[in-house]
Every structure is written in C-alpha cells, then in structure tokens.
Specification:
single chain, mainly alpha, 2 domains, 2 helices, elongated
C-alpha cells in the first residue's frame, strides 16, 4: 500500500510540475512585455538544471556498479 501511495504522489507531482513548466514557458514566450534577457534566461535555467540532474543520475548509476561492500559487516 505504501508503494501505491508513493507512486500516486509522484504522478501527481509530475503532472503539476509539467503544467507549471508549460504555463511559465507560454507566459514568457507569448507575452510581448517580457524582456529578451528573461526569455533567454528561463530556458537556460531549465536546460542547465536538467543537464545537471541527468549527469548526477548517470554518474551515480555508473559509480553504483563499482561499489564494493564485501568487507562491510551487517
């Protein structure tokens, strides 16, 4: 039951986060009053954050294969 709750929570958060990203992007790109620097900065922040997140996950998965816990006592 715990796992079902976590999955439901994650799905809800993902839906809300994606809606928020779409709303912010549409507001930034389709409004004429938004300065050009903001139109450049917001996608740069999203792309940079995504790249850092993906790199961190990839490095963690690669390092997980190299971990050696043979001498650790339980």
């Amino acid at each position: 039951m715990y796992k079902v709750g976590v999955v439901a929570l994650l799905i809800g958060v993902a839906i809300l986060a994606s809606y928020w990203v779409i709303a912010v992007m549409s507001a930034v790109f389709f409004e004429d009053e938004v300065p050009i620097l903001i139109k450049i900065a917001i996608p740069a922040v999203f792309v940079g954050s995504a790249l850092l997140f993906i790199t961190t996950i990839r490095d963690r998965m690669r390092d997980k294969k190299k971990e050696n816990f043979k001498e650790v006592k339980y």
